[in-house]
Amino acid sequence: MPTSSDGVKEQEQKPIEEELEELQRDERDLQERTDRLSLASGLTLIFSILALVIGVTALTIALIANGKGGTKSSSSKASAPAAPSGTTPVIAAGKLDVKLGEMFVRPNAQTVRAGKVTFTVSNTGKIVHEMIVEKNPVTVDPSGKANEGHSSGEVPELQPGTSGKVTLQLKPGVYQLFCNVPGHYAAGQRTTITVKG
After folding, report:
1. Cβ(122)–Cβ(99) under 8 Å?
2. How does pLDDT run across 7-25, given as a tens digit for each residue?
3. Any idea where the domains of the chain sit in the sequence?
4. Which of 60, 77, 79, 112 lies 20 to 30 Å from 176, alpha-carbon distance?
5. Dihedral sign, Cα of residue 53, residue 144, residue 104, residue 159
6. What pLDDT score was predicted for residue 73?
7. 196: number of CA atoms within 13 Å, CB side?
8. Chain-centroid distance, C-alpha 102
9. What percent of the chain is modeled with pLDDT above 90?
10. What are phi and psi of 7, to 5 degrees?
11. 0.70 exceeded by the pTM?
C-alpha cells in the first residue's frame, strides 16, 4: 500500500516533469530560430557577393564600351587614330560631325580651324545623350559631373536616333566634347579636339 510520502514524491515529480518538458520545448524553439538566422545570414552573404559581381561586370562593360582600359584625367586627350607617318593630321574646316553612343563621343576629326565651327551631332546609342563643348581644363564636381559653367555651347539631350546642330565661335586651344547626362561624364563619355588658329 502506498504511503503518504510516496504521494508527496509523486506530486513533486509532476511539476519537475512539466518543467523539463517546457525546457525541451524552449530548446526546440531556440534551435529553430538559430536555424532561420543561419539561413538568413547565408542568403545575405550570397546576395552581397552577387551584387559585387554585377557591379564589377557593369564597370567592365562600361570601360570596354568606352574603348579604354582605365581612367584618364578630365584634361587628358582621348586617344585618336594616329596619322600615317609623313602626313599631317586631318584638319576640319568649320564643320565637325560627331557621333554619340553608350559612353563614347567620336568626332570625324580631332583638329579643326579656329573661328566659326558647326557641330552636327548624332545620337547613335540606345539612350539619351547630349554634347557639351568646353575649353580645357574642365572642372568636375564631387558628384563626378562636369561643371558646365564655362561651356562654349551644347547640343541638348538627344533621343536615340536623332540629331542636332550647334554653331560656335571657337578660339585656338584644346576643347572637350562630353556628355553630361548624370553618370555619363564619370563613365568616360568625353573626348578632346584641338582648335588651331
Report:
1. yes
2. 555 556 677 888 888 888 8
3. 1-66, 91-196
4. 60
5. positive
6. 40
7. 10
8. 12
9. 49
10. -65, -40
11. no
Question: What amino acid occupies position 32?
Answer: E
Q: What is the helix (H) or strand (E) element at residue 16, kind and residue range? A: helix 4-66
CATH number of 91-196: 2.60.40.420
Q: Is 149 left (phi over 0), alpha (psi -120 to 50) or beta?
A: alpha
* Site of grid cell 548624332: 122
As a whole number of angstroms, the distance between CA 149 and CA 169 comes to 17
User: Quick one: 113 exposed, middle or buried, by C-beta within 10 A (0-12, 13-18, 19+)?
Assistant: middle
Q: Among candidates 161, 160, 135, 162, which has minimal Cα distance to 147?
A: 135
C-alpha radius of gyration, the chain, whole number: 34
Residues 125 and 102: beta-carbon distance below 8 Å:
yes
Q: Which amino acid is at 39?
A: L
**DSSP code of residue 87:** S
How far is Cα of residue 126 from the mean position of the Cα atoms in its chain? 16
Q: How confident is the model at residue 5 (pLDDT cuts 50, 70, 90)?
A: low
